[in-house]
Amino acid sequence: MLLLNTILLTSSILFSASQYDGISVVNVHIESPEQLELLRDFGAKSLACFDHSGETSMLLDEEAIRLLKKLGVTFKIVESNIDRRLKLFEEERALARSRGLGGWYSDFKTWPEVNAKLSSFAIAAPEITTTFIAGQTHEGRDIHGIRITAPGDTTGRKQILFNGCQHAREWVAVMVPVYAIEKIIEAWNTDPSMQSYLESTEIIVVPIVNPDGYEFTYANGGDRFWRKNRRNNSGSCEGVDLNRNWSFAWGGGDSTSTNTCSDIYIGPNAFSEPETQAMRDLVNTLPNLVAHVDFHSYSQLILEPWASSNDTPPRVTVVKALSAAMSDAIASVHGESYVAGTGGDLLYLADGVFPDWVTDRGALSYTIELRPTGSPGFDLPPSEILPTCEESFAAVKTMIEFVNQPIAFSFPNGLPEFVNPGELSVFPMVVSSVFNESIDMNSAKLHLRYGNIGEYAQSSVSSNGPNSFLVELPSSSCGLVGEYWFTVSTSAGQVARYPGGSEVLQTTASSVVYT
Ligand SMILES: [Zn+2]
Fold it and tell me: What does the pLDDT average to over 30-37?
């Protein structure tokens, strides 16, 4: 026990002093949550946002590396000189900033820079934006946010919350919500569908939930690898993991710790932290909250509820239809794959997280883990900030469209890219009610034209089971491109369209066999 205490104390001093001598970045092949816990007890710090099996980047001192050898764990030291790695990253950032490619998104931005950007949005678009302060941190920093909606009576409008940076070191998770604000404001002036969405929807964005921790990752004498907030735990270790401090399943045993030195320290009680209190109180002022994304990095995942159990979440078909639509939208921008699934499917379970608490309140809530998939972790090259923002905004837009449609569509066998001339292409379509309204199963229509000219021909799509249809898509002459979309109505007569907005699906009539 004395030995263990000595190791913990030594590790803490090394980490909190931000001197990385003797500490390496090591890719460790994790086999079980218990193994990860044991390594944490020896001062190891995981660099992943959520715990998972397989290869995980960790910060380890020499004692912990000796432990890996003793346990027979597979590992690879990828960087033994962390100061050098951080210096290279700083140089890369300085160069990107001086080149300025991508404008404001050429490099990561500090808390004051983000605050200035939020103020500039409010000045540029006062008719649709309201800035607010959600609360103050331990160190007295304001948690800034912005609300965006069309002018007029806002009562009854659907509300969507986007936030970033519960975890301090996940810098790109700040840039993405800021970019979303900028693009929504821009679309208000240029895109009729966004104008109409903002007349029925209010978007609330808090880019930095954890400004104390975020500033600490930039500060001289701070720590680039800091994850938690900056609570003074009256000992040698500071901070609470905000994304373990929410009351839903708080204090459960999945990816949590009661050790103040741990990166996944849950805090003395649920909602003990001013940052989680501020976000909780904000959500409590949103009676029509229908959807939420908590942005993190890294891993390129769209995590559905629940994080804390393998139970089926409420409205599971709708939950999965939206995550699939967001994943498709992201892939359509730069071809990047963000895998959708539950915490239990893709990672180890985690208790006391923000999206579980929001899900429990009835909204559709997700964690999106941004770029990259693995190395170099949250030190994403600055040249990838803008592409990450662009693809994430596609997910944001998809969510806004989705909650403005009463019906969710899914295609279990996919959509046909090609149809054989002279043959019908037959595939299933499944619908589900987003807000528990009943669906008129005789109302489904296919709208189709070939050759990019003329009116769209409308035909009925017949139902072949509860919430299920069999689409028969006619073909045309070889080489012609077909454009089509679907509509289905609720019993109250509200029409849902797939795809959303004014987009169309495409298929090509071709007799070529594609393999
Ligand atoms: Zn995170």
Answer: 93
Q: Using CB atoms within 10 Å of the CB of residue 50, give its burial: 0 to 12 exposed, 13 to 18 middle, 19+ buried.
A: buried
- Burial of 17 per CB tally in 10 Å (0-12, 13-18, 19+): exposed
CA of 171 to the centre of ligand 1 (A): 10
Indicate the pairing of strand 481-490 with strand 495-498: antiparallel
Contacts of 293 (CB under 8 A, 6+ apart): 161, 162, 163, 365, 366, 367, 368, 395, 396, 399
- In this structure, what DSSP letter does residue 231 have? -
Which one-letter DSSP state was computed for residue 350?
-
Q: How many CB atoms lie within 10 A of CB 427?
A: 15
Q: Is 503 a catalytic residue?
A: no
Say which CATH superfamily domain 407-509 falls into.
Immunoglobulins (2.60.40.10)
66: Cβ contacts below 8 Å, ≥ 6 apart: none
Q: What is the pLDDT of residue 375?
A: 84
Residue among 341, 358, 343, 340 at smallest CA distance from 309: 343
* H or E stretch covering 323: helix 316-334
Token pair, residue 465, equals 């089971």
Which listed residue (336, 369, 391, 401) is catalytic? 369
Domain-wise residue ranges, the chain:
2-80, 123-403, 407-509
How do residues 401-432 score in pLDDT, each as one tens digit? 999 999 999 998 989 888 888 888 999 999 99
CATH 3.40.630.10, domain 123-403, yes or no: yes
| Rounded distance from Cα 175 to ligand 1 centre (Å) | 14
How does residue 10 score in pLDDT terms, banded at 50, 70 and 90?
very low
